Amino acid sequence: MKSNLVIAIDGTSASGKSTNAKLVAKALGFVYVDTGAMYRTLAWYCLQKRVDVHDAKAVANLCRRWKTSLECVDHPVRHVRLLVDGYYPEKEIRTEETSAAVPHVAAVPKVRDWMRDKQRECIEFGNLVMEGRDIGTNVFPETDHKFYLDACINERTKRREAEGVRENLAARDERDSQRAAAPLMIALGAMVINNSQMTSSETSGIIIKEMKKRLGLQAGQPGPATAAHSVQP
């Protein structure tokens, strides 16, 4: 089995992880993985099955039983998504109801164990840009390429509201950083980027420039098919 490279992008809610990870993946020719969407999918599935998201045991049991698969699609950028019974609930996982359920589902240790194993399977699709809250600390701690995004709470709140979502980000930050299983923290060796005053192109540009320097690529040169400092499942 070939070895592939993983760029881990962690950070707080509304710090621009998804937008910037997509831009980095597109620029380098890597596969994008939104791990938050996987947790959202489970939260949505719990709501569909009327499982109480505050009941950790019930959520863990459902996660152990649900029938899922991974697929890699090309539009709008090559990315991996988690299907449930062959279906991807693209719109359903972005509702306020699902968003409110996600932190409770994500705090369940058995769920995080299941997600870590499933997320590591994504390496079979090629070089990855994977974003989330525990990629550099828990999912792919062995990767040499770790980045951590953050922004001030006011800026992040504005970004979330611009998406049409009202969320108490301070409470979310506290839950994420204090949960017992794989809490949100800056991974050892991660490059920290506070993008409060930056555009997405400026933020992603920092990561792209750094990665091209590490990989010995010229400014206009695409990313490698495989690379050193790689990881295996």
How would you characterize the overall build of this protein?
The protein is of the alpha/beta class. The chain has one domain: Rossmann fold. It has nine helices and seven strands, in the order E-H-E-H-H-E-E-H-H-E-H-E-H-H-E-H. It has helices at 17-28, 35-48, 56-65, 96-106, 109-121, 135-139, 153-162, 169-178, 200-215; strands at 6-11, 31-34, 68-73, 79-84, 128-132, 145-150, 191-194. The protein has a seven-stranded mixed β-sheet with strand order 3-4-2-5-1-6-7. Helix 2 (35-48) packs across helix 4. The radius of gyration is 17 Å and the shape is globular. The protein starts with 5 loop residues before the first strand and ends in an 18-residue tail after the last helix.
Outline:
It is built from nine helices and seven strands; from the N terminus they run βαβααββααβαβααβα.
User: Over the alpha carbons, how many angstroms does the gyration radius reach?
Assistant: 17 Å
**At CATH's second level, what is the architecture?**
3-Layer(aba) Sandwich
Low-confidence stretches: 225-233
Question: What is the tally of helical segments?
Answer: 9
Number of domains: 1
CATH level-3 fold name: Rossmann fold
Strand order of the largest sheet: 3-4-2-5-1-6-7
How confident is the prediction overall: mean pLDDT? 91
Q: Spell out the helices and strands N to C.
A: EHEHHEEHHEHEHHEH
Oligomeric state of shown chains: single chain
Biggest beta sheet summary:
7 strands, mixed
Number of DSSP-assigned strands:
7
Rounded to the nearest angstrom, the distance between the terminal CA atoms is 9 Å
CATH class: Alpha Beta
CATH superfamily: P-loop containing nucleotide triphosphate hydrolases
